[in-house]
Amino acid sequence: MNRPLVTLVNPNLVHPPITPYALDILTTSLEAAGFEVDVLDLTLIRDRWRHAVAAYFGEHRPLLVGVTFRNTDTIYPQEQRVFLDSHREIVREIQRWTTAPIVGGGVGFSSMPFALVDWFGIDYGVKGPGETTMVELARRLAENDSPAKVGGLIINLGRGDVRQIPHRSQLLADGRVELVNRSTPYTRRSGVRNKVDNLAYYRRGGLGNILTKNGCTFACAHCVEPDAKGNRFARRAEAAVVDEMELLTAQGVRDLHTTDSEFNLNIAHSKAVLREIVRRKRADPHSPLHDLRLWIYVQPAPFDEEYAELLAEAGCAGINVAPDHVRDDVLDGWKVTGRGTRFYGYPDVRRLCELAKQYGMLTMVEALLGMPGETAETMKDCVDGLLALDATVVGFTLGIRAFPYSPLGRDLAARSGGTRAVAGVQSNTATAPILLSTLDQCHSRVEYERQFMFDPMGGFRPVYYFSPALPEGARNTHPGDRWLTSLELLWEWVPPQDRPRVMLPTAPGLSPEDNNYADNPFLLRLTELGYKGAFWSHWPLRTEIMGDTVPA
């Protein structure tokens, strides 16, 4: 008897390609539940995606189609490139070829799921981890039962009416721990037809990926992850995580980047994962884990010497740390735990960089400039403070994307109240003052979410925020104006001798450099030449690499 078929689609057309890890996670749970699963991956064939959609659905009749929307836009304040138009074009092409219901998901999708279910014109949506919900939905459809029985499922009733079936409890709705497969390794494949090809992505993009825990208990003002993924840590079994690492490294995928919100938060679990890697390496001199190069995201604290030693022995090659600023008065109330308390200071960042260097690991330290309270003085202090660190690379971002359910987005809506333009709210495509209403003021979640991406006429207008205490704020700026004076100050403050190791935001005409990820010329050149690992680790040699003709 043939098993019911579920087809999972990756519509991401941006390069360098990023492995669609979510589809491996979904495939693992759906196959374990008895479904046949195909992956239609359009990223690596982006120039002929239409043909691929027609050819696949011309031959296959799936029960359900799942589409993962990893990003809605670049979130890069100087570019503000939106991906939703190409995503909807792909969705519509799928709908031309199949009558199977379509369900959307992914972290980008989860930042505004009601609006996107409506805008894409799809049947269902899943906010947050999807493996449990997808299995239950597929089972209901296979048994001709009602999808309205699937807790947490978002359902499109038509004409802008999009509703969510309640979860069993509020704890499940907010934390989502039970929605994550925490006990088994996720099945990772390479070179298998109609599955995610992890080795192909590694060869074309330079990195694989690994998840050790889902969700985040912190409440940083700019971040969507506690809302989009869950506000509790869903910790995966250490053995399952390392089984997966061994599987990938044995396939030749040797550089793995963590996809946790932050690897060192809930540090006891993080250390347990590292100890399991170390244990297996010590026990087996032939383990593929000896080839592992691990790249991680962390916060400045907690991070002690034991942790640095474990990272180094496990094979950590580089650490991306996000203090976001050096001034306590800027960070207070912004980078906080779930209880609203600060958890690190500038000395923690300095100590982390020292430990990383001591144990032979590269570091990238990133600042997020332009949040509430930022002035030219505080911005200059941040530049000076990060340049004083013994870091491999220092990166700066100016401005922040405001999402519907981030603390910043909610605050901006409350301050605007649908009638007042809030100073510092900006969009490159804005043609009129940006007015944001609170959720209570809106008729529906669709209406509330849409205003953070679309203008009243339906055109793309992603919402960004720049502190009005920066130089531009002294003028009566139009919401579509670019914040170029502050940008130029950043370039002025970085001495020429430091430029090779610094990633600065840029704008057309300011510099030939570009530190945005999407279709970045430097990154495309890196992958063309065969460089591996986090792209920032090669940033200091970008001039030589861009002129090189010899593969890495």
Automatic annotation (TrEMBL):
UniProt keyword list: Iron, Iron-sulfur, Metal-binding, Methyltransferase, S-adenosyl-L-methionine, Transferase
GO biological process terms held by the UniProt record: methylation
Domain B12-binding: 2-148
Domain of life: Bacteria
GO CC annotations on file: cytosol
Cofactor: [4Fe-4S] cluster
Record's protein name: Tryptophan 2-C-methyltransferase
Organism: Jiangella anatolica
